[in-house]
Specification:
Blueprint: E1 3-4, E2 10-11, E3 16-19, H1 23-98, H2 104-177, E4 179-181, E5 186-187, E6 224-230, E7 242-247, E8 250-259, E9 275-281, E10 295-298
Antiparallel strand pairs: 1-3, 2-5, 3-4, 6-9, 7-8, 7-10, 8-9
Helix pairs in contact: 1-2
Length: about 300
């Protein structure tokens, strides 16, 4: 606690009641903001990777695959022309050999050229078949796998960003909660501290815990008196009985609203007297404040 309004203060809606130290939460808030920016940047990068993976599939189908296929088909046509030329040369050399113009060695050389052209043609046909039936499928599988991986990472990054945003928003809310303001106007009092404590639970420099009641703002139009009824008389007291409450400056007609079914602990501090807490509802009256002493007569 770095600030607390004095007990007994009368406040208006919106007045500051308590301020809590924000040093640690400020650090957490700064860290969550940084992590949120990093998560946003990572998410945008992943979105770009997904878009690139989608484009890569179309680029391969309509671009790289087609260009590779066209290049191979062009080479295939050249090999076919080479084979036809080699076949013509071989036939011509056979005819010239029969006429005695060329030697048998030249005929064999042309026959080897034909064989080589046929092999080159088959190799090129095999390359085209592999490209169409295997390479294309492998490439598409790889590209689709990259796309799936990028989409999975995109989902993970989106979840991570949502988590970082929640952390950032929670830290922002905690910063706001460190300034406690009055929701309604009224009187402010401190909760009763244990008898052995020298200072109240709420004071500057004190540590607060989860679910701790820091301040009370009673509704002064609905005041009550709590009295202890001795065990020898409690059976005669029940809700609805009339009561007369005598204050230092006035007397009020009241009514019993509740009688405890379990006694309060008895000990040396109570003189070993067993009493049951009983609540007396008071009528709305100006000037009533928490902590005032009263004398109660139950009729």
């Amino acid at each position: 606690v770095t600030y607390v309004i004095p007990a007994g203060s009368v406040v208006e809606p919106g007045d500051v009641l308590v301020r809590l130290d924000t040093k640690i939460i400020d650090e957490q808030h700064s860290l969550t903001k940084t992590n949120t920016f990093i998560a946003q940047a990572t998410l945008e990068q992943t979105k770009a990777n997904v878009a690139r993976a989608e484009i890569s599939i179309d680029a391969y189908k309509e671009g790289r695959f087609r260009s590779q296929l066209q290049a191979l088909e062009k080479e295939l046509e050249a090999n076919k022309r080479n084979l036809r030329t080699a076949q013509k040369m071989h036939k011509r050399s056979e005819s010239l050999f029969r006429q005695g113009y060329v030697t048998e060695l030249q005929v064999d050389g042309n026959a080897f050229t034909v064989k080589q052209a046929e092999l080159e043609l088959k190799v090129k046909e095999t390359e085209i078949k592999v490209l169409k039936e295997f390479t294309r499928a492998m490439q598409l599988e790889t590209l689709n796998g990259n796309l799936t991986a990028s989409e999975s990472k995109l989902a993970a990054d989106e979840a991570g960003l949502r988590m970082e945003i929640k952390r950032r928003d929670r830290a922002e809310q905690e910063l706001k909660d460190c300034i406690i303001k009055a929701e309604t106007g009224g009187l402010v009092i401190y909760p009763s501290a244990a008898l052995w404590k020298r200072t109240p639970d709420i004071t500057e420099g004190a540590n607060v815990r989860k679910d701790q009641v820091l301040l009370l703002m009673p509704d002064l139009s609905k005041m009550q008196v709590k009295v202890g009824i001795h065990e020898s008389m409690v059976e005669r007291v029940h809700a609805g009985l009339k009561a007369v409450v005598t204050l230092p400056d006035r007397t009020l007609d009241a009514e019993v609203s509740k009688v405890a079914t379990v006694t309060r602990p008895a000990g040396w501090w109570t003189g070993n007297v067993v009493k049951y807490d009983t609540i007396i509802d008071l009528p709305s009256d100006a000037g009533l404040k928490p902590g005032m002493s009263a004398e109660v007569e139950v009729i």
